[in-house]
Amino acid sequence: MLFLLRLAARLPLRLAHALGAVLGWMVYLCSPRYRKDFKRNLATAGLSDFRLRCSAVAEAGKSVMEVPAVWLRPLERVAGLVVEVSGWEHVDDGARRGKGVIVVTPHIGCWEVVGQYVASRMPITVMYRTPKIRALEPLMRIGRGRGPAMKSVPADLRGVRAMLKALKRGEAIGLLPDQVPGIGEGEWVEFFGKPAYTMTLVGRIAEQTGARALLCFAERLPGGRGYRFFAEPMLAPRPPESALRALNRSLERLIRRRPEQYLWGYNRYKVPAGVLPPDAR
Q1: Is 274 within the bounds of a domain?
Q2: Count: domains in the chain
Q3: Any idea what the Cα angle at residue 69 is, between residues 65 and 72, rounded to 5°?
Q4: Which residues are bridge partners to 212 per DSSP?
Q5: Among 166, 74, 86, 160, which Cα is nearest to 120's?
Q6: CA pair distance 208, 111, nearest whole angstrom
Q7: Residue 28: which domain range?
Q8: Which of 46, 61, 152, 172 could connect to 144 by a Cys-Cys bridge, CB 3.0–4.6 Å?
Q9: pLDDT tens by residue, 48-78
Q10: What are residue 159's phi and psi, to 5 degrees?
Q11: Has residue 281 been placed in a domain?
């Protein structure tokens, strides 16, 4: 498997994306459950346009095929794939405050590029969960562990402590805010009008440390041209709105800008093991 992934990492980005689009359609057509989740999640967000769905299916496949290059190429080459940058001044401003920066990156565009690009400009610590395919874990740790520039920590108490230490040093940390958390690590909050179990970690860390939380996104550019890095402040809560609802509203706003690049096949609304469903509270 590692040989095939290293081979895929050598592909030009344009070819990797073309193959990814084919892969996206193969999975969509061959997996009824995936197709059902894909359509349902788009409909929940009020995005039922057929052309948009077709684009989103292809973009989902691209997100898979670009990972080998992002994980296995040298950091400077990966960072070089970012050909346009918007909003880096927000990162600089957060760093100047001396309390660190929380890089909040949902499953949109190439989220793996976000951490790599930030690592090329300032140290970052990112959190990872053990993948379902255990054979991919060593590769994931290689891709998300770039020495002093980029460290990966497990999604547990030890990892949270490492992130707090990174912020104390004035560094950045990276979190995926739309990843379904485990029991006791989230709350039911509306996401596109439907309750989704939402992680509380972003808000807890921001409140505890005073670090600035920024929404970051690596937009996939057409024709394999590379990526556009984008950063902006999170939306502030509108009383009596909770901080968690403001987080999800920030994600919704970003996703509506490039809905075709969001990972609609991800089961965002699932009920984690041991968690009471929202209608049982």
Answers
A1: no
A2: 1
A3: 130
A4: 101
A5: 74
A6: 25
A7: 2-265
A8: 152
A9: 899 999 999 999 999 999 999 998 999 999 9
A10: -65, -40
A11: no
